[in-house]
UniProtKB/TrEMBL annotation, chain A:
<keyword id="KW-0813">Transport</keyword>
<protein>
    <submittedName>
        <fullName>Histidinol-phosphatase</fullName>
    </submittedName>
</protein>
<feature type="domain" description="ABC transporter">
    <location>
        <begin position="20"/>
        <end position="259"/>
    </location>
</feature>
<dbReference type="InterPro" id="IPR017871">
    <property type="entry name" value="ABC_transporter-like_CS"/>
</dbReference>
<keyword id="KW-0067">ATP-binding</keyword>
<dbReference type="GO" id="GO:0005524">
    <property type="term" value="F:ATP binding"/>
</dbReference>
<keyword id="KW-1278">Translocase</keyword>
<dbReference type="Pfam" id="PF00005">
    <property type="entry name" value="ABC_tran"/>
</dbReference>
<dbReference type="InterPro" id="IPR003593">
    <property type="entry name" value="AAA+_ATPase"/>
</dbReference>
Automatic annotation (TrEMBL), chain B:
<keyword id="KW-1003">Cell membrane</keyword>
<keyword id="KW-1133">Transmembrane helix</keyword>
<dbReference type="Pfam" id="PF01032">
    <property type="entry name" value="FecCD"/>
</dbReference>
<feature type="transmembrane region" description="Helical">
    <location>
        <begin position="67"/>
        <end position="87"/>
    </location>
</feature>
<feature type="transmembrane region" description="Helical">
    <location>
        <begin position="248"/>
        <end position="275"/>
    </location>
</feature>
<dbReference type="GO" id="GO:0033214">
    <property type="term" value="P:siderophore-iron import into cell"/>
</dbReference>
<dbReference type="InterPro" id="IPR000522">
    <property type="entry name" value="ABC_transptr_permease_BtuC"/>
</dbReference>
<feature type="transmembrane region" description="Helical">
    <location>
        <begin position="123"/>
        <end position="147"/>
    </location>
</feature>
<feature type="transmembrane region" description="Helical">
    <location>
        <begin position="159"/>
        <end position="179"/>
    </location>
</feature>
Length: 280, 344
């Protein structure tokens, strides 16, 4: 039994207050198994971070949760199977920020954020005053008001990441899926963006908090911001639990084939890579 | 704030169309004064309430010879420019154009097959031409897409265009073979191939009109969806769109419009690339702006190109495809050089 199994959900049972409830998720493409028998529950307002070595299936899992990739098993979002949601309804519930979103040439920050209102705008109509107000509000919350008319392609990496978040928040979704939200950023901007996500999560209203599922490479950063961590390896769930239970030297050595030392930090365990001992 | 189609630009586009219309009507072997042209148009539009200043002969030249031709030019130009803008959005490729994707060549092959093989009676053949052009155009765009996507890993802006060039060459080869084998029709097909807005009264205009309406309505109704598609299929799907369905609908509409235009006017290249890019440069990069304005400026551009084609070597006419290529090829190089990173 690996660490974190104690907090795992019972197979078949659905936690009553779960925002996300996934059971027996499997994805096969051709002969390759990308995910196999993955069960998770994420409570409303919780932050779950998915870690794992390259090719573990982290991005695949996010796409399944977003309803974008067909999978065996079942994903329920707030009790409703994600595959039974109509596309537009699904887009109002779940927002996904891809790892490296396409930046359309010439598109302004405002227009990009306005794309988040797509599921609210009738196919043949123009955006309403409410849509414009929602976008303005989101841009103000993310401190982007001064950049409204700038072309997205002219912004720095940190500013762009805030605009991608703005687009996702403009969707008014209750579940925010972030695929490597910090991979293109230096450490300062990583912290800025993650603090911002945490703030947004906290300022969601009490009866409708924002739930976050993110994939991340940097383990120390992952441990500092997540409520719980899911460790995937080879498409399987190998550990799920609070950072201190998952970010252990043993688990990381086994699944990342990495030599690390784990030390206690103020907000969670800190993972420090250690060089292999030199051969004599 | 949000990119919107500014009324100012729509007004400029409408003025451009009107200028092209009046210029196209006024100039020719018999020059008419633009004022008389406008008065005569008003005369006909008001059912004779305003007296015309033209003689009966000049009025006949205007309404029976020049007006159908200018209107055809406006329609073909609008369709080619709109289709070009649409393909650019669908394929997320700034170089996409009905001509460069091989769509026009496919349509040309379909139409040529009908002209030289003459299946059916002389009554049904003219109706078959647009249909055969559409079938040929669809086959070509499917071929280009599959060929361009075959090496998905290496698919780039240029791969798709290279695939289009290959498909176009293939279609042209079969077409040449058909022509050689039926040399009695070679003259007829040759002049049509280079693109020509020759008309016999209003027949061609009426033939093209229904296709023009369907294509324009479908493409313009999806202009916002094209903006959403520009961020990638997965993102578009997560925003509630069905990317494959939207793409299929738009490719069908643009291909139908292209095929109909080719069926009546032959191969006129570069309109679909010059016009949307010029619009993009001056008015904005959102498809909500590009598509409606491409329709207007494409119409004006082709009507003016036709005016050049029939006046620079008067009384001889040069093929209009030669005029558009003369302006389009250098423009294409500019677009090629300024194209930034493009999504796969």
């Amino acid at each position: 039994m690996t660490a974190g199994e104690a907090t795992a959900p019972e197979p078949g049972a659905t936690a009553p207050d779960a925002m996300v409830s996934a059971r027996g998720i499997g994805v096969r493409i051709g002969a390759a198994t990308l995910l196999s028998e993955v069960d998770i529950d994420v409570a409303a307002g919780e932050w779950l971070t998915v870690i794992g070595p390259n090719g573990a299936g982290k991005s695949t899992l996010l796409r399944v949760l977003a309803g974008l990739l067909p999978a065996t098993g079942e994903v329920r979002i707030d009790g409703t199977p994600v595959t039974s949601l109509r596309r537009r309804d699904r887009a109002r519930q779940i927002a996904l920020v891809a790892q490296d979103p396409v930046v359309p040439p010439g598109m302004s920050v405002f227009d990009y954020a306005m794309l988040g209102r797509t599921p609210y705008i009738p196919p043949l109509a123009a955006e309403s005053a409410a849509d414009l107000a929602a976008v303005r509000d989101v841009l103000a919350r993310l401190d982007l008001t001064g950049l409204t008319d700038r072309e997205l392609s002219t912004l720095s990496g940190g500013e762009r990441q805030r605009v991608f978040l703005a687009r996702a928040l403009a969707q008014g979704a209750r579940l925010l899926l972030l695929d490597e939200p910090t991979s293109a950023l230096d450490i300062g901007h990583q912290q800025d963006v993650l603090e911002l996500v945490d703030e947004l999560r906290a300022t969601g209203s009490d009866d409708d908090p924002l739930t976050v599922v993110a994939t991340m490479h940097d383990l120390s950063v992952a441990g500092e911001y997540a409520d719980r961590i899911l460790l995937l390896a080879g498409g399987r769930r190998v550990a799920l639990g609070p950072p201190a239970e998952v970010l252990t030297e043993d688990l990381l050595a086994t699944h990342y084939r990495a030599r690390v030392r784990v030390v206690d930090g103020d907000h969670g365990p800190l993972v420090v890579p250690v060089r292999r001992a030199r051969r004599p | 704030m949000t990119s919107r189609l500014r009324l100012r630009w729509v007004a400029v586009g409408v003025v451009a169309v009107l200028v092209a219309l009046v210029a196209g009507l006024a100039f020719g072997p018999v020059s008419l004064s633009p004022v008389d042209v406008v008065t005569d148009l008003v005369h006909h539009l008001t059912g004779g309430a305003v007296p015309t200043g033209l003689s009966a002969r000049d009025d006949a030249i205007l309404t029976q010879l020049r007006l159908p031709r200018v209107v055809l030019g406006l329609l073909v130009g609008a369709l080619l420019a709109l289709s070009g803008g649409c393909y650019q959005g669908v394929f997320r490729n700034p170089l996409a154009d009905p001509y460069l994707l091989g769509v026009a060549a496919g349509a040309g092959l379909g139409a040529t097959a009908v002209i030289v093989l003459r299946p059916g009676s002389t009554v049904t053949a003219p109706l078959l031409i647009p249909l055969a052009a559409f079938v040929g155009a669809l086959a070509a765009v499917a071929g280009t897409y599959l060929l361009g996507a075959a090496g998905a890993r290496f698919r780039s802006t240029v791969t798709l265009i290279l695939a289009g060039v290959a498909i176009a060459a293939f279609c042209t080869a079969i077409q040449t073979y058909l022509l050689q084998a039926h040399s009695d029709t070679i003259q007829e097909v040759y002049s049509w191939l280079l693109g020509q807005l020759t008309v016999s009264g209003w027949h061609e205009v009426l033939m093209l009109l229904p296709y023009a309406v369907v294509t324009s309505v479908v493409v313009l109704s999806q202009r916002r969806a094209l903006d959403v598609l520009s961020v990638g299929d997965e993102e578009a799907a997560s925003l509630g769109l069905h990317p494959q369905r939207v793409r299929l609908l738009l490719v069908l509409a643009a291909t139908l419009g292209t095929a109909a235009a080719v069926a009546v006017s032959g191969l006129i290249g570069f309109v679909g690339i010059i016009v949307p890019h010029a619009v993009r440069l001056v008015a904005g990069s959102s498809y909500r702006i590009i598509l409606p304005l491409s329709l207007l400026f494409g119409a004006a551009f082709l009507a003016l190109a036709d005016l050049l084609a029939r006046t620079v070597q008067a009384p001889a006419e040069i093929p209009i495809g030669v005029v558009t290529a003369f302006f389009g090829a250098p423009f294409f190089v500019v677009v090629l050089r300024t194209t930034r990173r493009v999504a796969p």
